[in-house]
């Protein structure tokens, strides 16, 4: 067996072990993120009433995006931070497996957890805003990239920052993602300085990728945004991997 095949097998076994380890919490996690997806659609619907077709598309595609991003940037840091506080993360890192495999297995688990809420968010958006989506053939890998990037950023934040600070930061990120990020509305509505900030942050590129994947006839994914998103994904993975090694 080659080193790559062996590493992949270890990663999948670790992911399976992590799923079994969290089996009692998984149903609650899925319920929470499903509720978040539906609540986002219903809540925005109450605010805007009967929107025009373009606004409706922003809202319908924004709900599943919010779900993916908040799982990665909020739930992942909270769970990893709690594991660090109670010591279970340190114990798991003593297992005789590569640190990269341990990191990838965790990210795979969180990506899988995020997908049900994302799917229900799409359905809820279609039903509430009566939109016709034009799904791109590359939407599935795009969804995985967004979920993986969000989870990687959240994981890096939880491993590089003190646990209490990381968990406190997640409370602010909830409001930033839902209210002060161009996910469910165009960036032109924000002040110029905030638009400039989001050009370098990963949230807007995630929203653009999901939006273009769900409504390719209306929206497009700028090449620059894709580069920014990939750069954040690589930086987060490297940062988390280095933190896991340094704190062994």
UniProtKB/TrEMBL annotation:
Q: Which Pfam families match?
A: ABC2_membrane
Which keywords describe this protein according to UniProt? Membrane, Transmembrane, Transmembrane helix
- The keyword Membrane is assigned to this record: yes
Residues forming coiled coils = none
Transmembrane residue ranges: 25-49, 55-80, 101-126, 138-158, 165-185, 226-244
Predominantly, its location class is membrane
The keyword Transmembrane belongs to this UniProt entry's keyword annotation: yes
Q: Which InterPro entries match?
A: ABC2_TM (IPR013525), Nod_factor_ABC_transporter (IPR051784)
Topological relation to the membrane, as annotated: Multi-pass membrane protein
Taking every annotated instance into account, which residue ranges of this chain make up the domain ABC-2 type transporter transmembrane?
Answer: 10-213
Write out the annotated subcellular location. Answer: Membrane
Q: Which PANTHER family match?
A: ABC-TYPE MULTIDRUG TRANSPORT SYSTEM, PERMEASE COMPONENT, NODULATION PROTEIN J
Protein known as: ABC transporter permease
Question: What is the native source organism of this protein?
Answer: Cellulomonas wangsupingiae
Q: What is the lineage of its organism?
A: Bacteria, Bacillati, Actinomycetota, Actinomycetes, Micrococcales
